[in-house]
Amino acid sequence: MRSKLFVPASRPELFLKALQSQADGLSFDLEDSVREDKKSDARNALAEFLKTREAIASKKVMIARVNSMDSQHFLADIAALVESGIQIINLPKAETGEAVATAAKIISDAENKYQIQPHYQRPVRLLINIETPKSLRLAHELACADSRVMGLQLGLGDLFEPYAIDRTQVVAVEQAMFLMAMAAHEAGVAAFDGAYANIADKTGYELEAKLSHSLGYLGKSCIHPSQIDIANAVFRPSDEDITFSLKVVEAESQAQKNSVGAFVVDGKMIDPPFANRAKAILTMAEQLGLINGK
What we know:
Layout: E1 3-8, H1 15-19, E2 25-29, H2 39-50, H3 53-57, E3 61-65, H4 74-84, E4 88-91, H5 97-114, E5 125-130, H6 133-137, H7 139-143, E6 149-154, H8 156-160, H9 170-187, E7 190-193, H10 202-214, E8 219-222, H11 228-234, H12 239-257, E9 263-265, E10 268-270, H13 272-287
Parallel strand pairs: 1-2, 1-8, 2-3, 3-4, 4-5, 5-6, 6-7, 7-8
Antiparallel strand pairs: 9-10
Helix pairs in contact: 2-4, 4-5, 12-13
């Protein structure tokens, strides 16, 4: 997912518009953007939308951020979303592996209950928010807590604002991004960048997206449709990357025939890590329709 469009679940009038956007994924929010007295209505509206023909037929990745596990809404959120066929549940405020494992068990129980539904998808995966100092320190533990975890998502707003850390301090952003990226890479799960609140600052959004992309992140959240095209462009494999990767894969095939471990492509030494990266670029290019798969 290069781009994940944030959609408040309390705004059902936006659901179909979001579905028609160019975002790779839709991230429906039941947590911070929904007032306490509207939680139930938002949950019901989202559950009904996920069952519609349009939502089921869509190729977009469907994600929902639930309320925190210590809230009175968590269990109801999980039950409604699993029964409605959600693909990924975005878990906020988790700070221990045990909490992630507990959430996974609750999802499993709901799956067993609702697996007969025609719109049901299994297994529901988990995207874990890294948005507190403790969760950043224990990010690898959270990523490895259960096989349902498909990725980590960095939330710099929640991570920085309570401690008066200046979001414009590049050194702080870089360190947080790098630490979470390494945790995700070690665990073998995806790393996703979070939101950028200043919608008017397109340059700032693009620079932050380019930074996370350079650290191996796969995509970035969009809190406004105007950010989608930027994210899609930044996280799209460049034509140069695709061309070079094609050369690498071809050269690797020949090297394997000749029992050669390392080889040179366009003046660059290539060994397994670089070859694997080239294959990942080509896989993404195929998924985006930029090249034809073999």
